[in-house]
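Following up on my earlier thread - several people asked me to post the actual chain instead of describing it. Fair enough. Here it is, all 180 residues.
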Amino acid sequence: FTLRYLTFLLLISIELTSCQPKAKISVIENPMTGFTPMLADSIRGAATVQELGNYLFLSLKGEITYYQLEKFFPDSANIAMIYELTQTGVKDANLAAIADTAQSQLLHGWTKTQREVSMLGENWTDATFTKLLIQELENQTLPGKKITIECKSGKQTLRASAKCLKIGDRWFIGEEIKFG
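Reply from S.P.:
Thanks for posting it. Predicted structure:
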């Protein structure tokens, strides 16, 4: 880890966890209803948190690749925007290296989520996405939410979560893809 990346993680962590999450949790039943993946366009991020949850599910299920999911992670331009919006100096930051390290950490969480499900003798491939839980995070410079996808696989309920942030008018997975 570089000092700049640690500074970036601290900045994101402060933005996503500097306050206690609200007790308010929205639940969307059958979130894939009416959803059509649109990966061919060059627009980064998702228009809505629900759309972001759908793409996370599709990647875990194997219907899109992890590398297609990276479109929903902040890149160096998005990270520069975070620095600007939070009024943090960007002049000495190596934004590309920060983005690469952040994506590496998200890959680690995504892979661990896959592995933990297989250790249960289950898999995401046969799972049905039944609920999306959206937990509001308040008092932040950048809007943030924690999403939890809830799926059925046989008799098991599988859950994966991620913290998301809104950069400009798009939603991104900011940190902590994890199982449970």
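The longest strand covers residues 156-167. That should answer part of your original question.
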